[in-house]
Write the structure tokens for this entry.
Amino acid sequence: MMRAFRILKLFLVFLREFALSVFRVAWLVLSPRMRFTPCAFRFDLTLTGDFQITLLANLITLTPGTLTVDVTDDRTALIVHAIDCPDPDAARREIADGFERLIREAFA
């Protein structure tokens, strides 16, 4: 029962992030100046299972404005591209404290 609740929580957090990202990307595209800072950064993983890593990579890619570009050969990091990322460290913390933590809790 607890696992189902954690999976539901992950799904609801994804829906919230998806909706917020849709508005952020729309705002970037529709703003007259189109000032944004694209960035590619390395996200070091604490997840070890293939399913968990794949789920995280897909959640990142499904969120508008972000894309998982690659998984390192040793499966210890993801390479992530963000359309507007002035602070890569903040983006790393957001992923670690959000999707990655929830995946670890739901599928540990």
About this structure: Residues 2-106 form a domain with the Alpha-Beta Plaits fold (CATH 3.30.70). The helical segments are 2-30, 50-62, 88-106. Residues 56 and 100 are 6 Å apart (CA to CA). The beta strands are 39-44, 66-71, 77-82.
